[in-house]
Amino acid sequence: MRWLWPRRGEANVRQADLEAMPEQNRRYVIYWRPGCPYCLRLRATLGRSRRRALWINIWEDPEGAAFVRSVNDGDETVPTVVIDGVAHTNPHPALVRDALV
């Protein structure tokens, strides 16, 4: 199964664009990659609240992949979710959902 983005109402950005945004506009950032079952589970669990987050596809953005490696001991583990400046590696979907509500 191929999982393509962005879909209507979802913001797919690049790391360089993210860093140029005001901090209040980047409170929730989700780093993902196509085909990742954990990313798919997170997306499905979030429902419509997923639209409040910014999404970075690490396969399309080398700077985004570098950020993920920097917070995961060199691994490109996704989803990596940044909530209010704190990175969470493969967090439980409920943690992210509760933050987005």
Protein architecture, described:
It is a single chain. The protein has about 100 residues and is α/β, with parallel strands linked by helices. The chain has one domain (about 10-100): Glutaredoxin (3-Layer(aba) Sandwich), CATH 3.40.30.10. It is about 35% helix and about 20% strand. It has four helices and five strands; from the N terminus they run βαβαβαββα. Strands 1-3-2-4-5 form a five-stranded mixed beta sheet, sandwiched between helices. Helix 2 packs parallel to helix 4 (about 95-100). It is globular and about 30 Å long.
Structure in a nutshell:
The protein has 101 residues and is of the alpha/beta class.
Sheet-strand content, in percent, reads 15-25%
Radius of gyration: 12 Å
* Basic shape: globular
Mean pLDDT: 88
CATH topological fold name: Glutaredoxin
Unreliable runs? none
Helical stretch count?
4
Which percent range fits the helix content? 25-40%
Measured between the Cα atoms of the first and last residue, the distance is 29 Å
CATH class: Alpha Beta
The CATH superfamily title: Glutaredoxin
Total strands: the figure is 5
For the largest beta sheet, what order do the strands appear in spatially? 1-3-2-4-5
Largest sheet: 5 strands, mixed
| Secondary-structure content class | alpha/beta
- CATH architectural label: 3-Layer(aba) Sandwich
Number of domains: 1
SSE sequence, one letter per element: EHEHEHEEH
